[in-house]
Every structure is written in structure tokens, then in C-alpha cells.
Write a structure and sequence with these properties.
The chain has a single domain, classed as Electron Transport, Fmn-binding Protein, Chain A (Pnp Oxidase, Chain A, Roll), CATH 2.30.110.10. β4 and β5 form a beta hairpin. The termini are far apart. The chain has 5 helices and 6 strands; from the N terminus they run αβββαββααβα. It is α+β, with helices and mostly antiparallel strands. A 6-stranded antiparallel beta barrel has the order 1-2-3-6-5-4.
Length: 160
């Protein structure tokens, strides 16, 4: 369900995600560029299906901030979010490199600054946020429940 922009009086509803045929075709083309590493901050995200056990792949923009990596779902609680929650792990690939991570979902207070940074680097997803790149962090914190955020913890650090 679209939500109101907390930063403006009456608010502008954020766009709701729809996985159309055109989007799927565009995503397939983008995967080629992501594999090659030419799309900044973007990786192929691999999760294991929580029901089927099959590997699922989608494009994901990673936020790097204060020495940490964060995974954001701009479209809300979509399939990869359910899969990441169930497995507690994800894999990112780009330029032939693979990195396995444990995931830790964060609350709104921790997510707010990450979401603000995300909107700055992932311009194509801005219509799915009520807050704009110039909005205060509090506006992003207010809509954090619509955009799950996960801290990415390298598996080697998780095992240490």
C-alpha cells in the first residue's frame, strides 16, 4: 500500500512496486551490466527460496557507510526479503567475485540514515520513497517500516 510522505503536509504517495513484463525484460538486460561490474554499487543478490530451496537472483544496490555494508529493499517486503529473513544469509556477486554474508535486519532508527544514503545513490528507486534526497533523516526513519534494511556481515566475520 502506498504511504504518505511524512515530510510534507498532505503528502505525496510513494509509488507502489509492480513487476511488469517490461520491468522483467529491463532487469534481464541490467543483469548483464551488473555481472560486468559497470553499474555502481549494484550486485546480483542470491537467496535460497524459503519454500522451494531453489536459488533466486535479483539486482540489489548496496550502501556502504561508515565501514559497513547495507542491503535495502526499496520495494518493501518482496520475495528476496522473505528469503533473506528465513535463511539469515545472502550471497552477492559482481565481476566474477562472490561474497557470502549473514544478514541482520535493523530497526527504523538504524535504518533511517542508510535509507537516506540509498536514495542518493539509487535514483531509479526514488519514486518508491515518500522522502526525497533532501529530506531530513527523520523522514526516512518514519518510513523505514516500508523499506527493510539489512546489515551485511561477511561470513568470515560471522564465524570469528
Amino acid at each position: 500500500m502506498p504511504h504518505e510522505n511524512p515530510g510534507e503536509g498532505g503528502g505525496t504517495p510513494a509509488r507502489r512496486f509492480r513487476n511488469t513484463r517490461a520491468r522483467r525484460i529491463g532487469d534481464a538486460v541490467m543483469r548483464v551490466f551488473i555481472r560486468a561490474g559497470v553499474v555502481p554499487h549494484t550486485y546480483l543478490l542470491h537467496t535460497r527460496g524459503r519454500r522451494t530451496g531453489r536459488m533466486r537472483t535479483t539486482a540489489a544496490t548496496v550502501v556502504e557507510q561508515d565501514g559497513q555494508k547495507w542491503l535495502v529493499s526499496p520495494y518493501g517486503t518482496v520475495s528476496w526479503v522473505h528469503n533473506a529473513r528465513a535463511a539469515g544469509r545472502v550471497t552477492l556477486t559482481r565481476r566474477g567475485e562472490r561474497e557470502d554474508y549473514a544478514v541482520r535486519e535493523v530497526g527504523a532508527t538504524e535504518a533511517g540514515p542508510v535509507l537516506k544514503r540509498y536514495v542518493r545513490i539509487a535514483g531509479a528507486t526514488r519514486p518508491y520513497f515518500a522522502a526525497s534526497p533532501d529530506s531530513p533523516v527523520d523522514d526516512f526513519t518514519a518510513e523505514a517500516d516500508h523499506h527493510p534494511v539489512f546489515e551485511l556481515v561477511p561470513e568470515s566475520a560471522d564465524r570469528a
